[in-house]
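Need residues for this backbone.
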C-alpha cells in the first residue's frame, strides 16, 4: 500500500480506498485526485468528500421539498432522499450522504489514530457551521461522529 508523504501509516490511505469501495459515487473524484496528486493525500481528498457529502445532503433536502410541494409524496421510492430514483443520494451523480456518514461512523469507532485524525480534521472540521446551508447534516451524524464534532466545535 502506498504511504502518504512524510512516512505516515497506511491507515489513512486505506480509509480513502475503503470509502471509494463502499460509496462508488466517489470513484471519479478519487481517480481525479490520484491523477492530479500522483498519490493519495487523505486530508486533501476528504476536503472534497466533505463538500460532496454536503452537496448530496442539500440535494436530498431540495428534492424532498420539491416532491412535497408538487404532489404531497415525500418519498415516492422509499429510499429517504425524495428524488424518486431509488438510489438514496438525493441528486443524480452525487455520492449518497447517508452511506458516507454510515461508513465514517463505523471507521471512527475503530479508534485508529490515522483514521480519527482524517475524520476529525478533514471531515468533521469542514462541516457547515450553524446558520450555513447544509448545517442540518450535523444532526444526521451517528453518536461517535456527533461526539467528535462536539469536541472540536461545541456550538455545532
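Answer:
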Amino acid at each position: 500500500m502506498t504511504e502518504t508523504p512524510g512516512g505516515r501509516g497506511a491507515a489513512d490511505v486505506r480509509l480513502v480506498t475503503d470509502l471509494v469501495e463502499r460509496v462508488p459515487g466517489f470513484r471519479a473524484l478519487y481517480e481525479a485526485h490520484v491523477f492530479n496528486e500522483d498519490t493519495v493525500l487523505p486530508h486533501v481528498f476528504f476536503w472534497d468528500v466533505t463538500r460532496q457529502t454536503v452537496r448530496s445532503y442539500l440535494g436530498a433536502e431540495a428534492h424532498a421539498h420539491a416532491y412535497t410541494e408538487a404532489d404531497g409524496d415525500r418519498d415516492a421510492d422509499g429510499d429517504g432522499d425524495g428524488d424518486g430514483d431509488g438510489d438514496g443520494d438525493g441528486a443524480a451523480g452525487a455520492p449518497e450522504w447517508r452511506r458516507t456518514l454510515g461508513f465514517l461512523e463505523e471507521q471512527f469507532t475503530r479508534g485508529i489514530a490515522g483514521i480519527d485524525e482524517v475524520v476529525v480534521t478533514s471531515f468533521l472540521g469542514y462541516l457547515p457551521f450553524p446558520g450555513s446551508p447544509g448545517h442540518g447534516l450535523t444532526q444526521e451524524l451517528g453518536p461517535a461522529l456527533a461526539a467528535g464534532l462536539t469536541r472540536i466545535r461545541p456550538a455545532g
